[in-house]
Automatic annotation (TrEMBL):
Name of the molecule in the record: HTH lysR-type domain-containing protein
Family to which this protein belongs: Belongs to the LysR transcriptional regulatory family.
Transmembrane segments: none
InterPro entries: HTH-type_LysR_regulators (IPR050950), LysR_HTH_N (IPR000847), LysR_subst-bd (IPR005119), WH-like_DNA-bd_sf (IPR036388), WH_DNA-bd_sf (IPR036390)
Domain of life of the source: Bacteria
Coiled-coil region: none
Keyword list, A-Z: DNA-binding, Transcription, Transcription regulation
Length: 301
């Protein structure tokens, strides 16, 4: 089997259209389609459904595509192991990231890692926990920074941060030192990423409280802007809020509510040398984080 054709197939699925995939691969759409059709002929099965809106895996093809993805990962691991034996560290890593980490200390990690290992190609994917976990499971991510509550696989805790209420300027609760979950739930609530298996979903579920949802958005930064405009209140973790600009007031909860963030891997047993170097460096950076209300490093296990 020609693994280059497998790469073309996986790129088309990732991009969602032949046009985007062909542009990424530096080839024509017709050439890309021919290569994938050739792979389908070789395997005697249809792998893609082609339509006006793009391409998606054919019905029943997901298990085959998963095995093909494993095959590509295994080939990449072989080359990385050979390079490691020779004293070199090469390869590529696709890193998923929870929003709060991607805007705070992830850039520092990527810069430090790139300087130390320039032969390793890095790419990032930002999303909510549910999206990142699905990508970990289907093999399109090598690792992901996310919250611990949502993942039951190999996980390296790195730091904790607290939940805070986001209040618009002039809100009566600004005068209080802290707020309760019930107080926030009784206000017009702006829900970032509703039902995305997010920390905020889990936050309200734990307290068995339903907020009065006034508006919802898929973007936590849009939620912040809506609060700033006086459209309601919201909840987020403090780490994600420290770089946002505006007049929104952050209030801690009583009792304090915290969430552990860390690095999730599909499998520690199959982790590449490059990935383990990234894990090690992430731990080192987390340990050097200054302690404060926005977050604190967790001890390495």
């Amino acid at each position: 089997m020609n693994l280059e054709k497998v790469e073309y197939l996986l790129t088309a699925i990732e991009c969602g259209t032949f046009s985007l995939a062909a542009e990424k691969l530096g080839m024509t759409q017709s050439g890309l389609n021919r290569q994938i059709s050739s792979l389908e002929t070789e395997l005697k099965t249809t792998l893609l459904l082609r339509g006006r809106r793009g391409v998606v895996p054919a019905k029943g093809a997901e298990p085959i595509i998963a095995r093909l993805r494993d095959l590509m990962t295994a080939e990449r691991r072989v080359h990385e192991e050979i390079a490691a034996v020779k004293g070199l560290l090469t390869g590529s890593l696709t890193i998923g990231s929870y929003f709060s980490i991607s805007t705070t200390w992830l850039p520092q990690l990527l810069k430090q890692f790139s300087d130390a290992y320039p032969a390793i190609t890095l790419s990032t994917v930002e999303g909510a926990d549910a999206e990142l976990i699905e990508r970990l499971r289907n093999g399109s991510l090598d690792c992901a920074f996310l919250s611990q509550h949502s993942y039951d696989g190999d996980f390296f805790p790195l730091m904790e941060t607290e939940f805070v209420a986001l209040l618009p300027p002039g809100h009566p609760l600004i005068q209080a030192d802290c707020v309760t979950v019930r107080q926030i739930a009784e206000e017009p609530f702006i829900y970032p990423r509703l039902h995305h298996n997010s920390d905020i979903d889990d936050f309200f579920t734990r307290h068995k409280i339903e907020p009065k949802i006034h508006l919802q958005t898929n973007d936590p930064y849009s939620a912040y802007a809506m609060v700033n405009a006086g459209l309601g209140v919201s909840v987020n973790n403090r780490l994600q809020s420290i770089n946002l600009k505006g007049n929104v007031v952050l209030k801690p909860f009583h009792p304090q509510e915290r969430v552990a963030l860390g690095l999730a891997l599909p499998s520690l047993e199959t982790a590449s040398p490059a990935l383990m170097r990234l894990v090690s460096m992430a731990r080192e950076i987390a340990e050097k984080l200054p302690k404060g209300p926005w977050g604190a490093a967790l001890p390495a296990e």
